[in-house]
């Protein structure tokens, strides 16, 4: 599989939203540069953890044919398909008024070849399509806000697993993200191709 990802990833939240999440809210601009850097880092982390960017973008990729009429696309939800070629030959869009006519169509995850199959073999199918959410799911921003807040608070205890003070011991999270955020983001994680 070969292709390009032409989008420039944008931050999933902003400094004002992160500052408002703290209790009490942060009001000083002293750490705005640090918060901006953490927002960029955690936005990238979330995208890597998901295995994809959910922002709307257009993709052109050359894919392996699978011998089926359905070909999963690696970026979804698919909102439009602009072009399909098989072995260098353009395939027309499937006419909406002729449901059995030869051509391509799509659903949220796949491009379909009505009246044919995508022939088996490496790099036989090239597809140009648009995929992504507009607007992005709110959980992405909330996850970014919570991870930035977590990293901001962790800077004073980097490497500490627990700390004893006054007869009590406090333990600190040692995971890449809390289980609650992983569960909330899981439905958006890339699904392995069929």
Structure explained in plain terms:
With 194 residues, this protein is α+β, with helices and mostly antiparallel strands. It folds into two domains: 2-54 and 138-188, no CATH class; 57-131, no CATH class. It contains four helices and ten strands. The strands form three sheets. A five-stranded antiparallel beta sheet has the order 1-2-8-4-5, with no helix packed on it. It has a three-stranded antiparallel beta sheet with strand order 3-7-6, with no helix packed on it. Helix 2 (32-50) crosses helix 3 (138-154). It is elongated, with a radius of gyration of 22 Å. The two termini are 14 Å apart. Residues 1-7 have low confidence and may be disordered.
Q: What is this structure's SSE topology?
A:
Layout: E1 2-4, H1 15-21, H2 32-50, E2 57-65, E3 70-72, E4 78-86, E5 89-91, E6 103-106, E7 110-114, E8 121-131, H3 138-154, E9 162-165, E10 168-171, H4 179-185
Antiparallel strand pairs: 1-2, 2-8, 3-7, 4-5, 4-8, 6-7, 9-10
Helix pairs in contact: 1-3, 2-3
Quote the distance from N terminus to C terminus: 14 Å
Strand order across the biggest sheet?
Answer: 1-2-8-4-5
Q: Give the overall pLDDT as a whole number.
A: 88
The run of helices and strands is: EHHEEEEEEEHEEH
Low-confidence stretches: 1-7
Number of helices: 4
The general outline is: elongated
Number of domains: 2
**Global structural class:** alpha+beta
Give the helix level as a range of percent.
25-40%
Cα-based radius of gyration, to the nearest Å = 22 Å
Report on the biggest sheet: 5 strands, antiparallel
Write down how many β-strands occur, each being a DSSP E stretch of 2 or more residues.
10
Question: Which strand-content bin applies to the residues?
Answer: 25-35%
Protein name: Phage gp6-like head-tail connector protein
Organism: Nitrospirillum iridis
């Amino acid at each position: 599989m070969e292709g390009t990802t032409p989008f420039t990833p944008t931050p999933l939240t902003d400094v004002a939203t992160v500052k408002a999440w703290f209790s009490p809210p942060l009001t000083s601009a002293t750490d705005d540069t640090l918060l901006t850097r953490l927002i960029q880092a955690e936005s990238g982390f979330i995208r890597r953890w998901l295995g994809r960017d959910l922002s709307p973008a257009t993709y052109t990729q050359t894919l392996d044919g699978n011998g089926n009429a359905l070909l999963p696309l690696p970026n979804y939800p698919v909102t439009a398909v602009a072009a399909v070629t098989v072995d260098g030959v353009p395939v027309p869009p499937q006419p909406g008024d002729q449901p059995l006519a030869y051509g391509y169509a799509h659903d949220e995850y796949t491009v379909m070849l009505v009246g044919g199959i995508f022939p088996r073999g490496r790099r036989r199918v090239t597809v140009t399509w648009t995929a992504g959410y507009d607007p992005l799911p709110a959980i992405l921003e909330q996850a970014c806000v919570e991870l930035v807040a977590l990293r901001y608070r962790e800077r004073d205890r980097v490497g500490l697993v627990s700390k004893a003070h006054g007869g009590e011991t406090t333990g600190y999270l040692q995971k890449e993200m809390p289980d609650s955020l992983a569960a909330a983001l899981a439905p958006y994680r890339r699904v392995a191709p069929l």
